[in-house]
Amino acid sequence: MVQVLSVLVIPLLTLFFGYVASSSIDLSVDTSEYNRPLIHFTPEKGWMNDPNGLFYDKTAKLWHLYFQYNPNATAWGQPLYWGHATSNDLVHWDEHEIAIGPEHDNEGIFSGSIVVDHNNTSGFFNSSIDPNQRIVAIYTNNIPDLQTQDIAFSLDGGYTFTKYENNPVIDVSSNQFRDPKVFWHERFKSMDHGCSEIARVKIQIFGSANLKNWVLNSNFSSGYYGNQYECPGLIEVPIENSDKSKWVMFLAINPGSPLGGSINQYFVGDFDGFQFVPDDSQTRFVDIGKDFYAFQTFSEVEHGVLGLAWASNWQYADQVPTNPWRSSTSLARNYTLRYVIQMLKLTANIDKSVLPDSINVVDKLKKKNVKLTNKKPIKTNFKGSTGLFDFNITFKVLNLNVSPGKTHFDILINSQELNSSVDSIKIGFDSSQSLFYIDRHIPNVEFPRKQFFTDKLAAYLEPLDYDQDLRVFSLYGIVDKNIIELYFNDGTVAMTNTFFMGEGKYPHDIQIVTDTEEPLFELESVIIRELNK
Amino acid sequence: MVQVLSVLVIPLLTLFFGYVASSSIDLSVDTSEYNRPLIHFTPEKGWMNDPNGLFYDKTAKLWHLYFQYNPNATAWGQPLYWGHATSNDLVHWDEHEIAIGPEHDNEGIFSGSIVVDHNNTSGFFNSSIDPNQRIVAIYTNNIPDLQTQDIAFSLDGGYTFTKYENNPVIDVSSNQFRDPKVFWHERFKSMDHGCSEIARVKIQIFGSANLKNWVLNSNFSSGYYGNQYECPGLIEVPIENSDKSKWVMFLAINPGSPLGGSINQYFVGDFDGFQFVPDDSQTRFVDIGKDFYAFQTFSEVEHGVLGLAWASNWQYADQVPTNPWRSSTSLARNYTLRYVIQMLKLTANIDKSVLPDSINVVDKLKKKNVKLTNKKPIKTNFKGSTGLFDFNITFKVLNLNVSPGKTHFDILINSQELNSSVDSIKIGFDSSQSLFYIDRHIPNVEFPRKQFFTDKLAAYLEPLDYDQDLRVFSLYGIVDKNIIELYFNDGTVAMTNTFFMGEGKYPHDIQIVTDTEEPLFELESVIIRELNK
Predict the structure, then answer these.
(1) B463 preceded by cis ω (within 30°)?
(2) What's the CA gap between B345 and B268, in Å, rounded?
(3) Which positions of B are catalytic?
(4) Domains, chain B, ranges and CATH?
(5) Nearest partner of B29 among B325, B312, B231, B286, judged by Cα
(6) Which of B13, B17, B439 to substitute to test the interface with A, most A CBs within 10 Å?
(7) ipTM (interface pTM)
(8) Chains A, B: CB contacts under 8 A, how many?
(9) pLDDT for B457-475, tens place per residue?
């Protein structure tokens, strides 16, 4: 049995102007928490970035989420810890004590992952430890001028960890070498030695039989380089409607996303235990919003692929108007591969069965197939009190060819009225170019005007289907206080964005309007559900 | 001698919802033309998109620019023509009669290129025609349900063309197969036959010895696929500070740019006359603004590589508030390859010697090395009357580590005061992450609020240099009525964006402000030049 570890390697010359000790922020300030997400994990107080060590405990039937954590401020800073939370449904999270911390205040336990060492290859466990709870974390130890890969094990189901006495397990004398993602690979092969050249944008794949001794097997670079790679991942993903699967390499870049700041990309290919070979040299993004970074998959998932990301962006993460915490994760998503125009694409969907109960279901259409015009805007009649709802819209574009001009509809997500005003963000569809868009600009609210908070984003979509020659599209969206996750066409494209309404405001209402006088859109179904916390 | 032609191939199933017959717009409306660029080419009236057939006439010493042209409306529509303009300095353009037109009103002469057939391989010329003026255009003939590659020749220096009697020269029975870019390749080899599979994102390279009979040599796909490829190009680009060069494949994607809509990417590699092999599978963009598409290089340039693009974006090109024309080109740019962190990158710079005379030069600093604080904003004292100016700013970031918060300066491009208000766009630099940004949002003006007019864009930059450990950056910008071209760090990154101030307003003034109380930026030089038309 071979363990294979993907480790990011970037060079000594990289400077991290974004990663600087933050001005300390008074965490004792009492706020109303009006904009804290309900089913997206947030730390009670302090700063969070990358999710780490995601795994499922099959015995306790419990999901574990660790995360990059600075409890002392709402901005990144050292000492940096692995915070910890658990959930039995992936939407309600209990935060626990810090799981792993550094030895000194000017150091950090940087990102990493967890593998369950069922067969005790590491020798850390004895027979009293349930094989499903033989938990080994591998992470980057960030000490002055050096980043090494270290390991630690837990004898209590993942709540506390003991560091391996002979750490580090990988040291290439680099201060930019981090974010190991470890997984078991079942096929045994002898291990090869590779060269260990340090480069700015390179994923290195190591192998080990005991989690302690590692051998470099191969390097990988492709796609959009940005300034540097972070947080790699490698996992086998099933292809829809087939018994086949392909390997997917995930990697994150920051800074330098074409959208600005942080983004996750992926590659589809084959992996023989030693080397990942992509099928093509296409650059693909996992999520095309601005707030989806450092994606990681869960270990120990029996069927399929499940993962989540940090729902923020280094361009502005330390300035968002939340207090006394900063940042949430995305929801956990199931991934598959799907052929779209003869090319394999990653799809993303959430498991709706784990969502909280709906307390108010609005089927706006009563009858099916309502034609939308500017005389008949669709306004839901719930005034949501939770700030948490989802919606499912399927529609058809009635004309084959559409002239420029009045060609779109908007879905308005409105706040409650407060201080005589309503704040809205807007998503919608433009039929002339098959584009979905989101506009999270809110006039008169300061934060959305910041120079890096790109407010207008768009996604080109192939139709989900054709009804005769007419294009059919679908959109599932879930809104949770200050975050909106959009899944277009049954998850073919995902787009995650945070937004920030004025103080005290959060999403209350949803409305569909169009600028077209003649009916251009036929709504086949519009179902909105307010969800209980 | 082998001619090699790059031809775009995309499949039959592609639908072009953006490309629809426009509502006719009254071109007789008299407007003030307050926002018509002065040194960026615009057609006097009507619609323009891709630049076509760019070449230099060495005998007449004249630059020729053809362009996708609909004279009947300010939106795309058929019949579509090759418009034509010439210039002897690349900044003052004379528009001429239409050069090539379709046979029927529901057809179009789509994009293509021009090669000078010095040796009369085509047989179209006799000895009375100067070898520098043996002009052959190759373009896509768009007829119902079919796109073929056709050729035409000119006997009068490029003003009128005669279509080849045996057109088409390439017909693969596809209605999505277009935008040929032809060039001479000096090394003779026999020609190979390749297979001609139709795919959505594929560049095909053909060879010919006479411009009439073409053989498919190879296919190429890489990078960011978007929805489809358009407008390829292939040219040898010199490497700075060396006698070496590499081949660069250009290709455009639309829709589906990660920034939204249209973008140009490029690949660096080798070309043997038959096949282009990229050095790596990196995705790189030619310009990271939103208004730079369908880039094409000029034929017959003696030294170096010169090209220009359409300075608009299919997401909103047919809605911008200009009348009675829509769209301009970019300025012509010189390209080289430069090593940036051990990787070859395309650089872009304009030749400043061809710019109009400066009529007002403001060296704001008098003395060198002025420290910028929020108590000392820098306001230029010219109230520009032309709407055309450039600026050159070199600065140093004084602190190595910068905390989040007040970390940036803004360069404001202000309009004249009109109707009691000043409209501004903002560019600037954030030191905490080495990011340049532009914000072209203008409150209270309708067009910049459109859902696809992404207003905030950013560029991560490596420092141009270090002064001891302090980062040094430079920025050259040129503003021309409704367009701003930015060249960061001596052309390492280029960013082109249009902007639209309120009616009657255009750029008049430039101002540098910062939010930092303590000096964080030391301006080494700030030179602003108002330029004459």
Answers:
(1) no
(2) 8
(3) 50
(4) 2-349 (2.115.10.20), 356-531 (2.60.120.560)
(5) B325
(6) B17
(7) 0.90
(8) 173
(9) 999 999 999 999 999 999 9
